[in-house]
Records
---
Amino acid sequence: MEKHAEELAGIVKDMPPITLDEMSSIRLMNRMDTKFVTNVETLKKLLQMACGSYFAQNTGGHPYSPYQTTYWEDPEEHVMFRTHQCGHRPRTKVRVRTYLDSNHTFLEVKKKDNHGKTAKKRVAVPSLEAVIKEHAGEEFLTKLTGYTFADIVPALGNRFNRITLVNYDKTERLTIDFDLQFFNYETQAEQDMDNIAIIELKRDGRVPSPILPMLRELRIKPSGFSKYCIGTALTNDRVRVNRFKKRIIKINKILERGAQ
């Protein structure tokens, strides 16, 4: 789980730290979200370039945090996977996320509306096991989605590490996910993507971004990446993945460049 964590932490350790409480005070009023995909070798270069322009979130003495996420799905029709693959809106995802360094767990519902805006709501639950075995949070789930836990089941789990950066002007946040691993509940298949890095830039669209010129210099281009959909496409041969085949080929080319 920590294949690259300590090495990447060694690069960002010289960035001034920012606490979770300080992070919570940052409000991006005109937020724009963009994802980028690269390999770990290129990510190292990006982090070295970003030193001097960013704070690094520090949790428990580490500049990275381990996450565990489990996605729920309709076991017969795989509706949430299919609607995303087809680009349908509005669409919904249901997941349970555990912040492994604090052991805090939340049942989350993410919705993307017809205008492409994503809203996330969540409720604290005792644990992933409490959701699976005791249906903790079901009232919240039904209120937001109409589903009960009789309708949807655990479908895909993932684990990854995350580095979070904030620019000095506090007008943007960068989340960088790496050491990604998948486990499929339906097929029992596992898949590692520990050499891929997913960067998400959340910024105030009114001001310049220090990271964008660095991304361009390293030829890291915007690219959508749904952990749920890519993970499902890689671990479940019972669903049709036609629309993700080109995306997976592109990801493999990014990985190959990092191995050269």
Note: The chain has a mean pLDDT of 89.
---
Amino acid sequence: MKILVTGANGMFGQDLCPILEDADFVDEVIETDIETLDITNELQVKSFIKEENPDIVIHCAAYTNVDKAENEQELAEKINVQGTENIAKACKSADAILVLISTDYVFDGEKKEKYLTDDKPNPINVYGRTKFEAEKVVQKICDKYYIVRTSWLYGHHGKNFVETMLNLAKENKEIKVVDNQTGCPTWTVDLSEALTDLLEENPQYGIYHICGSGETSWYNFAKEIFKIANTNANLIPCKDYEYNAKAKRPNYSVLENNGVCGSWKHSLKKYMDLRID
């Protein structure tokens, strides 16, 4: 089986591709990024996918800066919506399965209990809205698709909350972290392995939630990071409105993942054990 990955040089893609290559059912992994495939160029996308003729396209490429998206709405739409539409049309023509990586931010956080795959999205920021629009595009165009929602990603190959906290601790300054937003931290390796298993099992097409099991606030996530690192930090809880973020975040965006990934605490420990300062 041949799998094409967009955004392969991103934090998630750099963990996903090696794991796919090690999978018994995968014969070839085609890694693409902006240098080799501009997803906003419809003709290039159509030609590239037609030529490579993959069985599966995993669409990881996206505009993901939640705060900047508020001021760069057109760019976020171009990449997340138009880019996904181009990929979806090309997959349809090539009879390839499309896997869209989506987000917990398609929800508004008002539910107060775990979000199910069939709960109605209601995004409250530009990033979440463009990802929900991408989901709708895939559902409209493709017959063979998996929409995989994940949340609070961190990995060794990109900027993330874990590294930000550890770097701030080195400065020995007061660190304010939001304690009224709750979600599921997800290690990119766990997401990669679970997604690979999903594709090997080839279940019914549709929407899936893949994220760390359990739930926590950003503040308690930070506390666990410092606990594992055995680092003293001047950590102060605060509310989201004190943080002055440009984009509003859902206060509760925990996804029901049916235990497909292990405990977020256990995964964080594994991540920390593997980091190189």
Note: The chain is about 40% helix and 15% strand.
